[in-house]
Design goal:
The chain is 29% helix and 14% strand. It is α/β, with parallel strands linked by helices and 398 residues long. It has a 7-stranded mixed beta sheet. β6, α8 and β7 form a beta-alpha-beta unit. α5 crosses α8. The protein is globular. 46% of the residues are buried. The structure holds NADPH dihydro-nicotinamide-adenine-dinucleotide phosphate. NADPH dihydro-nicotinamide-adenine-dinucleotide phosphate binds next to α5, α8 and α14.
Length: 398
Amino acid sequence: MKILCVLYDDPKDGMPSKYALDGIPKLETYPDGMTLPTPKGRDFNPGDLLGCVSGELGLRKFLEDRGHTLVVTSDKDADGCEADKELVDADVVISQPFWPYYLTRKRMESAPNLKMAITAGIGSDHVDLQAAMDHKVDVVEVTYCNSISVSEHIIMMILSLVRDYHNQHSIVKAGGWNIADAVQRSYDVEGMHIGTVAAGRIGLSVLRKMNPFDVHLHYFDRHRLPESVEQELNLTFHESVESMVAVCDVVTINCPLHPETENLFDETLINKMKKGAYLVNTARGKICNKEAIADALKSGQLSGYAGDVWFPQPAPNDHVWRTMPNHGMTPHTSGTTLSAQARYADGTREILECFFDNEPIRNKYLIVKDGELAGMGAHSYSKGSVTEGSEEAAEYKK
Ligand code: NDP
């Protein structure tokens, strides 16, 4: 079989010759007891860079030993790109949300052999799920592999926005020492109201991690958490997102992108937020209206916005979020720490082993199976497509 793997570019100066740490901690299970990926083998060192082209997710030996063909490229946007050329006779496509190969209906229809799209990470919105259902292409992701990585990034972003870390750091880098400049937008989070849109793996982890900061915790979700968890964390549940954002100083978005959540944070909802609130979005760029966020930062309706997700990706050079005031954006990195890469590389191999050996893939990894939303997909997504507009990704560096 032919496996097409679309990964982000190598470091500008080539692959690292050494790493900051000698290795990564060994974890036994995820916080809810789910087991980490269990592939039958592994051909990489945990802690090495695997998510870029030369890292190949550590898959080459495994695939070639079994007689399969692996093609790896980062060239994924615009007509005539390498990925499109290789897709036409591919059986499996692997892509990552950090550098998404937007598997639109048109692309899917160019690939008659395509049987499965694997997301080496979490969040399969870069695949037109409706087209996948229509064409019986299965879609799977490595559930939980980087949920905790993202929740750590969110805590960093909440603290850095509220305390105004980015401004203070730039003052030091520029050789300055004006303390009044450095603190005129700096607050403690203690006593603030913090709310998450969705309390799934990431959202709940954020609530747990924020709890020791002596804050008031809120959440909105389609399903309610167990009463014991609500009591343990003293959570306020909201029946609607509007009710929650009206009272929160900090809102973090942790739901998947699907037709129900696309453009959720538009001008109307942002205007219902508490004046001067901070918004952190590591879920997906398209959940927030790009212009409405920039306008709210300019007017002061929002005091800060941070996250690592954009639309499209890579973000065009003139994307307004690069230059808007009081933002703490990073490229899409929160779920691709070296620690997370080891987990999603293992998970991708586990999925491929099951697929080749005709064994069932874990139900929790399934998004689309046999033309229907299945597993996690049936629980957390809705039918339809959210890939429209992705061709703009070709604008980066033009
Ligand atoms: P989970 O599936 O554990 O959680 C998702 C939660 O979102 C579920 O509780 C689900 O509710 C809820 N949800 C779905 N639709 C809605 C809606 N319309 N309104 C409110 N809540 C909703 O996934 P994770 O927590 O692991 O990941 C969440 C998302 O974070 C991913 O889908 C992805 O987009 C993003 N992500 C980003 C990463 C990054 O690197 N920046 C890496 C990993 C994930 P219910 O199930 O109760 O219906």
